[in-house]
Recover the amino acids of this structure.
C-alpha cells in the first residue's frame, strides 16, 4: 500500500470532492446545458486527480493517460455531441425524470453512503495508492448508474454512461496505478466511439420520431416508405 | 484587557458601519455587470439617514409585536457579531457564550419576529411573504444543522474561534469534506439572505416577494432598522463564511490597536471577493419558482450530508 506526499494527497482530496459534487450535479440539474457543463467539470477533476497520482507515485505513463483524457472528455466529446445531436435537444430546460429531484437526491445520498462503507470493507489491492479515490470512485460509479436509470432522455443517459467510465477510471487509477499504458489508452478511445455511435443514433431517432425522450418511445413503428 | 474591550467595540462598530457599504457595493457591482452605472456605493447610508429623519406611521390595529420587531431584527445580528471572529484571531469576551448553532438561533429569532410582525397588521401581502419565508426557513434548517455538525466533527468544536484555528492547518484545508461544506454553506447563505436563486431582493412585485414583503408596512425609523438589520445579517453570514470556513487568514493576531484596525480593510477586501462570487451567481442564474426552492435546498442538504460522511469515514 503506497502513500504519497500529504500536500499532493490533500490536493487530490479536493479534486475528488469536485468530482463527487459534479456527479451529484449530473443527477440533479434540470438543464441539458448544465448536464454537459457538470460532465466537463467532472472530467477536469478526474484529469487533475490522475496528474496528482502520476506525480506522487512517479508513474509517467499516467501523464499520457491524463493528457488523452483532457483532450477527449472535456473537449472532444462535448464538441462531437453538439455537432451530431440536433441543437433543439440542447435548448431544453426541463429534462424528463422518472423520480422527482428531491427523492432522487436522497437515493443518491444513500448510494454514496453505501459506497463509503463498501470501500471501508474492501481489502486493499497490492500496489494501490492509499487515497480517497476508491470511495469517491465507487460513489461516482453508483451515481452514474442511477443517473442512467432515472433520466428519460438520450443525451443525459449518454452522459451517465460517461460518468460511470469517469468514476471507474478515478478508482482504477488509485487501485492499479502501474497498469500498462496500452490497457489504459483503450478507455478514452472507447468512449469516443461510444459518443459517436450514440450521437448518430440519437440524431437518427430525432429525425424519424421527432423526440429523444426515452419515455416517449413506447411503441414500435413501421418503417414507412419515404 | 483594554485591548480586548477595544477589539470588541471595534468589531461591533465594523459590522454596524460596514453592512450598508457591503450592500451598496453589491448593488453597484450588479448594476455594472448589467452594463449600467448604478447608484453610488454609499447610497444605503443616505437611505438610512433619510429614513431615520422621517416620521413613522403605525397602524392602529398593530400590537406591540409590530413595534418591537425592528429592534429585535436590528439587535440579533449585533449579538451574533460578538460570538464570531470578525476582526480578531483570538476569542473575545462573549466567544464562549454561544456556538455557531446558538448564533444561528439568534438570527432565526429576528426572522421569527419579522414573520410575526408581517402577520400582525393583516396587510394581505405580509402573511403571504411570511409563510414563504417560513417555508424556506424550515427547509434550510436541516442544512444548517448538518453543516455545523460536520464542522464540529472535523474541528472538535462548534465555537467559531476554535473552528477558525482548525482550518488554518493546510492538510485539513483541502479535504473534500471542506469543499462540500463550503458549497452547502454558500447555498444556505443564498437562501437565508434572500438572494437570487431563492428570492429576488431587487424585485418590487408584491406577489413574488419572499423576504421583502415582511417590511412592507414599515416606515421611518422602523423601516431603517429593518433594512439595516437585514444588511447586517448578510454581513454576519459573510463573516462566518470568509473568516471561519473559507479564508481563515488575515485576522488580527495581537491585541495591539493597529493590528485590529488593519484587519478591518482586509476583512472588507475578503468580503469584496465573496461579493464578486455572489454577483456572478446572481447574474447567471434566474430566480427559481417557489416550489423549486425545495430542490435547491434539497441539493444543499445532500451536499452537507456527503460532507459529513466524508469527514467521518476518512481515508
Amino acid at each position: 500500500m503506497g502513500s504519497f506526499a500529504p500536500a499532493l494527497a490533500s490536493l487530490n482530496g479536493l479534486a475528488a470532492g469536485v468530482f463527487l459534487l459534479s456527479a451529484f450535479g449530473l443527477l440533479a440539474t434540470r438543464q441539458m446545458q448544465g448536464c454537459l457543463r457538470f460532465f466537463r467539470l467532472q472530467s477536469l477533476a478526474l484529469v487533475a486527480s490522475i496528474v496528482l497520482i502520476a506525480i506522487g507515485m512517479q508513474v509517467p505513463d499516467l501523464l499520457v493517460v491524463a493528457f488523452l483524457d483532457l483532450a477527449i472528455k472535456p473537449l472532444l466529446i462535448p464538441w462531437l455531441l453538439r455537432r451530431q445531436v440536433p441543437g433543439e435537444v440542447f435548448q431544453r430546460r426541463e429534462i424528463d425524470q422518472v423520480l422527482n429531484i428531491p427523492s432522487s437526491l436522497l437515493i443518491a445520498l444513500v448510494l454514496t453512503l453505501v459506497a463509503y462503507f463498501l470501500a471501508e470493507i474492501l481489502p486493499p489491492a497490492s500496489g494501490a495508492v492509499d487515497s480517497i479515490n476508491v470511495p469517491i470512485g465507487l460513489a461516482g460509479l453508483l451515481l452514474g448508474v442511477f443517473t442512467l436509470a432515472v433520466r428519460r432522455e438520450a443525451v443525459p443517459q449518454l452522459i451517465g454512461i460517461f460518468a460511470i467510465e469517469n468514476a471507474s477510471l478515478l478508482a482504477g487509477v488509485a487501485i492499479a496505478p502501474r497498469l500498462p499504458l496500452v490497457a489504459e489508452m483503450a478507455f478514452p478511445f472507447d468512449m469516443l466511439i461510444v459518443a459517436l455511435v450514440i450521437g448518430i443514433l440519437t440524431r437518427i431517432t430525432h429525425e424519424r420520431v421527432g423526440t429523444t425522450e426515452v419515455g416517449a418511445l413506447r411503441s414500435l413503428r413501421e418503417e414507412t416508405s419515404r | 484587557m483594554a485591548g480586548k474591550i477595544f477589539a470588541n467595540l471595534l468589531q461591533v462598530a465594523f459590522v454596524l458601519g460596514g453592512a450598508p457599504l457591503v450592500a451598496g457595493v453589491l448593488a453597484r457591482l450588479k448594476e455594472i455587470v448589467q452594463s449600467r452605472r448604478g447608484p453610488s456605493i454609499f447610497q444605503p447610508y443616505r437611505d438610512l439617514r433619510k429614513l431615520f429623519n422621517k416620521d413613522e406611521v403605525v397602524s392602529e390595529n398593530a400590537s406591540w409585536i409590530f413595534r418591537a420587531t425592528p429592534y429585535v431584527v436590528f439587535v440579533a445580528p449585533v449579538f451574533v457579531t460578538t460570538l464570531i471572529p470578525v476582526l480578531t484571531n483570538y476569542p473575545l469576551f462573549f466567544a464562549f457564550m454561544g456556538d455557531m448553532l446558538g448564533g444561528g438561533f439568534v438570527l432565526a429569532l429576528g426572522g421569527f419576529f419579522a414573520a410575526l410582525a408581517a402577520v400582525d397588521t393583516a396587510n394581505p401581502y405580509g402573511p403571504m411573504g411570511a409563510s414563504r419565508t417560513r417555508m424556506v426557513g424550515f427547509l434550510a434548517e436541516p442544512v444548517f444543522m448538518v453543516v455545523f455538525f460536520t464542522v464540529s466533527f472535523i474541528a472538535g468544536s462548534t465555537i467559531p474561534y476554535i473552528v477558525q484555528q482548525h482550518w488554518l492547518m493546510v492538510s485539513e484545508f483541502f479535504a473534500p469534506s471542506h469543499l462540500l461544506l463550503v458549497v452547502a454553506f454558500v447555498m444556505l447563505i443564498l437562501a437565508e439572505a434572500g438572494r437570487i436563486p431563492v428570492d429576488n431582493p431587487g424585485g418590487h412585485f408584491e406577489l413574488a416577494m419572499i423576504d421583502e414583503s415582511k417590511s412592507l408596512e414599515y416606515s421611518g425609523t422602523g423601516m431603517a432598522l429593518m433594512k439595516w438589520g437585514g444588511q447586517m445579517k448578510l454581513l454576519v453570514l459573510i463573516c462566518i463564511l470568509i473568516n471561519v470556513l473559507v479564508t481563515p487568514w488575515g485576522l488580527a493576531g495581537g491585541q495591539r490597536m493597529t493590528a485590529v484596525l488593519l484587519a478591518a480593510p482586509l476583512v472588507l477586501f475578503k468580503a469584496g471577493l465573496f461579493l464578486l462570487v455572489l454577483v456572478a451567481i446572481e447574474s447567471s442564474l434566474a430566480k427559481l419558482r417557489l416550489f423549486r426552492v425545495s430542490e435547491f435546498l434539497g441539493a444543499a442538504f445532500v451536499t452537507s450530508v456527503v460532507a459529513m460522511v466524508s469527514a467521518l469515514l476518512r481515508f
Remarks:
- Chain B touches chain A at residues 170-180, 183, 294-295, 298-299, 301-303, 305-306, 309-310, 313, 315 (CB under 8 Å).
- Residues 2-33 of chain B form the longest helix (32 residues).
- Chain B has one domain: 2-312.
